[in-house]
Amino acid sequence: MRTLFRLAALFVLVFGPAAGADTDPAALLKTGKADQAIHALNIAIAHAPKDAHAYNLLSRVYFQLELWDNSVRMAEKALALDPQNSSYHLWLGRAMGRKAEDANPFSAFGLARKVKTEFERAVVLDADNLPARSDLSEFYLEAPGFLGGDKSKAKQQADYIARHDRALASYIYARVEEKQGNTGAEAEYKKAIAASSQPSHYWVELAHFYRRTGRLSEMEDAIRHSVAVARAGEASEFDSAALLLHSGRNFAGAAQILRHYVSQDDPSEDGPAFRAHYLLGVLLEKQGKKKEAVAEFQTALNMASEYRPAQDALARVSR
Questions:
Q1: Helical (H) or strand (E) element with 195
Q2: CA distance readout (Å), 295 to 12, 140, 257, 291, 306
Q3: Which single residue of 13, 71, 238, 306 could bond 62 by disulfide (Cβ 3.0 to 4.6 Å)?
Q4: Domain holding 158: CATH number?
């Protein structure tokens, strides 16, 4: 308790008594204010070097910034301070997984094994950590057998999840069906939508399925459904716009979705605002709206000066 009081006093001293959520690291992370979050967390860690939660939050900020080495390093520090924390193992596994995507094959194999270890450890420490079970099932589906991939184990995770979250379980069953080349995948995606009280995310997952199967008109229809039922600040809007961009479809519609998303007061950690502004800039650039694109890239960098894609994009359109 004394540590919490000292931290509260420090924030008042540094930022002023009326700062409130503007200086709360978790709130800054959630709203995508990466530079401010890093600043606040570094101050917190300087004052309380054994604050595992602060290191975890810092890892997640670097994860948003796609700075995988930094994210892994901070996640490891969080775990060193609190090795029994299931969520910290999950986040280390996620950071290692993204780092593996950019690594050379030899390094990627070693990292993949560590990802599996971290996800499995997260589940052992907290059997009801459903995000960890979901990520572990994705690993089992995506990894080759010699690295621990196993579709039957993915289904076992879904069987457990089904006791707590039928929609999430149906999504994983859909992924298993799809990976096995079965015809039941689409039906399972639709079961996830029907079972969820917040179906917008699962409409996006169905849209991804349609894209992977070359059914782009149905993909766009699923995106329209997702946007129609999305709640304020839900990352499904961010994901919908990103899917349209990467599919080369309806750039104007994607830009409209992102404008609505960034206008919300409570965006999602999974779709940080600075990345939404960056994607909006890319969409505007593709539509020949160079001046507007520059403004969006600059907005992204004002929130997250270390975000390399926005740096590169601003340099490109400013030539």
A1: helix 185-195
A2: 33, 42, 17, 7, 17
A3: 71
A4: 1.25.40
Instruction: Give the number of domains in the chain.
Output: 2
Would the pLDDT of 20 be above 70? no
pLDDT at 285 over 90: yes
Give yes or no for a contact between 259 and 241, defined as CB atoms under 8 angstroms apart. Answer: no
Tokens 């810092």: give the residue. Answer: 58
Per-residue three-class SS string for 51-99 = CHHHHHHHHHHHHHCCCHHHHHHHHHHHHHHCCCCHHHHHHHHHHHHHH
Please name the helix (run of DSSP H) or strand (run of DSSP E) that holds residue 224, with its range, or none. helix 216-229
Structure tokens at 267: 């965006």
* Count of other CB atoms within 10 angstroms of residue 290: 13
| Structural domain span for residue 3 | 1-126
pTM, two decimals, is 0.90
CATH at 102:
1.25.40.10
Distance (Å, whole) CA 67 – CA 41: 16
Please give the structure tokens belonging to residue 227.
Answer: 């946007």
What does the pLDDT read at residue 22? 64
Q: What share of the chain is helix, strand, coil (3-state, %, to 5)?
A: 75, 0, 25
Closest CA to 93 of 126, 131, 53: 131
Amino acid (1-letter code) at residue 16:
G
Yes or no: say if 280 and 255 are a contact pair by the CB < 8 Å rule. Answer: yes
